[in-house]
Specification:
The complex is a heterodimer of chains A (about 425) and B (about 290). Chain A has about 425 residues and is an alpha+beta fold. Chain A is about 40% helix and about 15% strand. Chain A contains 17 helices and 11 strands. The longest helix of chain A is centred in the N-terminal third of the chain and has 23 residues. Chain B has a domain of about 180 residues: MetI-like (MetI-like fold), CATH 1.10.3720. In chain B, helix 1 packs across helix 13. The chains are: A alpha+beta (about 425), B mainly alpha (about 290).
């Protein structure tokens, strides 16, 4: 069949025109009444509103516990969506671009600057200031959630890097189970001593193909040694310092002597915390949230991550949370945030589970009295750090980013790797 | 009468046309627009910046290695997939006892989603939780780092893909085999052709349409590889298994730059278009 040219032309015009309409429709649809236009009620509002909230799977347990307790005691109801950790950035980023964010959303704290500076969160400076306990909120989380003296985030679930060590293996290796390492050299020494037990036992473990793991577990050693990993505004990498070089050399030595459990080289971060709970690893830095997940028959100790010649620090990770800029219920959303930070919830929900609290003033509680490991972790919140950089994720967490390449070159590459040149590559990514 | 027939025809075509318009043409135009714009993921459209995003592709140090790796991976997968699926199809082509069982067994991996299959293999290869190392140990062999070196990571992924898709392509080839009339073989046999001659001069030429389909599907699928590497290797170790689509994902969701991601997408689309046209032409020759 032959189609007349006129019909063809008309059809073509129709296709183009309707596509243009669709395109225009998909590009617009922004604006509308945002949270910023509503009258602020500092203590929040509990009037039976249904709120939506997103969190990532990694911190689901804590978020779910808080939401369940809130829903049981309030008229407002929160619908919590838990999104797989690997997909979280994608989902939240896309939603932010389309102004389709939920009322509340938590975020891995290192990605917070991307979202605060893009205007995805509501300014809650005045609401935070009105809290009696504003000074006690985890300081490093507040810092990262602040842009130009305006605050957008409060700490939600804290996840600190701390040393976990296996007391039974320490005893077998002739080490004092009550004396965890206090310097980097001691850490290596202990790992070697435990590794010498042989069999299935290994000295330590780390995620050797996991950029986020390196940042989380190794940078505290640099900080504890009095050095810095980044400059203040997060645009320059300082990983070519003598302290960093010594850190890399120490771990390189452990790898060369096979003190690290097999699989470290290919560990992308999916299973790196799975080794220690099996009871065959001597000492390794891990997330504090693992404490509540340890097998009961495993006698473990927790200690701060030491610097080269002593000192202690931690990476204060975990999630911060805020109200999205397009929420229509900012006062109701704040009601949940304020409530979640109050003493009763922090102690009865988080401390009771052995988790680190979002506040530094509540360590004196009945649960911590029976859990010295939790006290060690909670005390670190004051000295710990959360690095700030707009390009943090794409530089350090991205598997193709230059941060991971630097560490892998220093640990697995040629012995004469040019740390200064690798560091310049990291800086280029941070400042782009 | 003719007019109403035309109208009816248009009505029949309308649903599909609408579908294509909404789910293909519109996104395509949007990607084109994005690729010509400064378009951060979080902030949205910031206006045209042509040709910045396209120039950026050449400056991306990962781009050419990713193209090279994607082509290498595609070559390996296509050869292995077509070879194995043809072999499987020949094995189960004749109706014998147990054929049904084997057809089902070979086809079963196809019913699994690619992401689920990748996760399954991730656990399988894992030194922490996988069963392979204990087996190797039991056999007195050194444990292998299945995803730890560039070569091992590539071949471990190839094994997954071949396992996952060989059964699917087997079905396509099986249909092709069954459409070859038995008389042709009968005639060849009477003329004194052996098994190998029958395969080379009857089966392969008459299977050509089915083989063509398998070729196009496997080439296109392999060039667009993403899930399996995203889950198994994350592009590692040391960026040795980064595919082109992973770069698109990285630009969009790690670097928050939809413009750059769209520009790579447009380039990949153009390359695929050219390749598919070339493949169709080549396969249509002599017909």
């Amino acid at each position: 069949m032959r189609i007349p040219d006129r019909t063809r032309r008309a059809a073509r015009a129709a296709v183009v025109a309707s596509a243009a309409v669709l395109l225009a429709a998909s590009c617009s649809g922004k604006g509308g009444d945002g949270a910023a236009d509503q009258e602020v009620v500092l203590e929040g509002v509990d009037d039976g509103t249904t709120l939506t909230m997103w969190t990532r799977a990694a911190t689901e347990a804590q978020s779910q516990a808080l939401v369940d307790a809130y829903n049981a005691s309030h008229e407002n109801q929160i619908e919590l969506s838990v999104i797989p950790t690997d997909d979280y950035q994608t989902r939240v980023g896309t939603a932010a671009g389309n102004q389709e964010l939920p009322d509340l959303f938590a975020l891995d704290v290192v990605f917070a600057p991307n979202f605060t500076t893009a205007g995805a969160y509501l300014d809650i400076t005045d609401r935070i200031a009105a809290l009696d306990f504003a000074d006690a909120l985890a300081p490093s989380h507040l810092d990262v959630g602040t842009v130009d003296d305006r605050q957008y985030l409060v700490p939600h679930t804290l996840d600190l890097s701390v040393l976990f060590y296996n007391k039974a293996l320490y005893e077998q290796a002739g080490l004092d189970p009550e004396a965890p390492p206090t310097t980097l050299a001691e850490f290596a020494e202990h790992a070697r001593a435990v590794d010498a037990l042989g069999g299935d036992v290994n000295g330590t473990f780390f995620g050797g193909n996991c950029g986020g793991c390196f940042v989380f577990t190794w940078w505290p050693t640099i900080w504890a040694s009095g050095a810095e990993a980044l400059n203040e505004d997060g645009t320059e990498s300082l990983l070519d310092s003598p302290e960093a070089a010594e850190l890399f050399a120490t771990y390189r030595g452990l790898v060369e002597d096979e003190v690290v459990a097999p699989g470290h080289n290919e560990e992308t971060g999916a299973t790196w915390t799975g080794h220690f709970p099996e009871g065959n690893i001597g000492v390794m830095p891990m997330p504090s949230t693992m404490l509540g997940l340890m097998p009961e028959d495993l006698d473990i100790g927790v200690a701060p991550i030491p610097g080269i010649d002593g000192g202690e620090s931690t990476f204060v990770g975990g999630d911060s949370i805020g109200i999205s800029a397009n929420s229509e219920h900012p006062n109701q959303a704040w009601d949940f945030l304020r409530w979640s930070l109050e003493e009763e919830q922090q102690v009865e929900i988080l401390a009771a589970n052995g988790d680190v609290m979002a506040r530094t003033d509540l360590a004196d509680n009945e649960y911590y009295a029976a859990n010295s490991n939790a006290v060690v972790m909670n005390d670190l919140v004051q000295v710990g750090r959360t690095p700030y950089s707009l390009n943090f994720g794409q530089t350090f967490n991205d598997p193709q980013g230059p941060g991971l390449a630097l560490v892998r070159e220093m640990i697995y590459g040629d012995a004469g790797a040019d740390l200064a040149a690798l560091n310049e590559g990291v800086t280029a990514s941070l400042s782009s | 009468m003719r007019y109403s027939r035309k109208l009816a025809g248009a009505a029949y075509a309308a649903p599909v046309a609408l579908f294509v318009l909404v789910f293909f043409v519109a996104p395509l135009l949007l990607v084109g627009r994005m690729s010509a714009s400064d378009w951060p993921l979080l902030a949205g459209d910031m206006g045209l910046n042509l040709p910045e995003n396209y120039q950026g592709i050449g400056d991306n140090p990962l781009f050419w290695p990713a193209v090279g790796f994607t082509l290498k991976y595609t070559g390996i997968v296509v050869v292995l997939l077509i070879g194995l699926s043809l072999l499987l199809a020949l094995i189960v082509a004749d109706r014998r006892r147990g054929t049904g069982f084997f057809r089902t067994a070979y086809f079963l991996p196809t019913t699994l989603g690619l992401a689920s299959a990748s996760l399954l293999f991730f656990g399988f290869y894992s030194p922490a939780i996988g069963p392979l190392d204990p087996v190797m140990e039991f056999l007195g062999l050194e444990p292998v780092s299945w995803l730890g070196t560039p070569t091992a990571a590539l071949w471990s992924t190839v094994v997954l893909i071949v396992w996952k898709f060989a059964g699917f392509f087997m079905i396509i080839l099986l249909v092709g085999l069954q459409s070859i009339p038995p008389d042709v073989y009968e005639a060849a046999r009477l003329d004194g052709a052996g098994r190998w001659q029958a395969f080379a001069h009857i089966t392969v030429p008459l299977l050509r349409p089915a083989l063509g389909l398998v070729l196009i599907l496997s080439v296109t699928g392999s060039l667009l590889a993403f899930d399996q590497f995203f889950i198994l290797t994350k592009g590692g170790p040391d960026n040795s298994t980064v595919t082109v689509v992973q770069l698109i994902y990285r630009e969009a969701f790690q670097r928050f730059d939809l413009g750059a991601a769209a520009a790579i997408s447009v380039v990949v689309l153009a390359a695929l278009l050219v390749l598919n046209i070339a493949q169709f032409r080549a396969l249509r020759k002599d017909h």
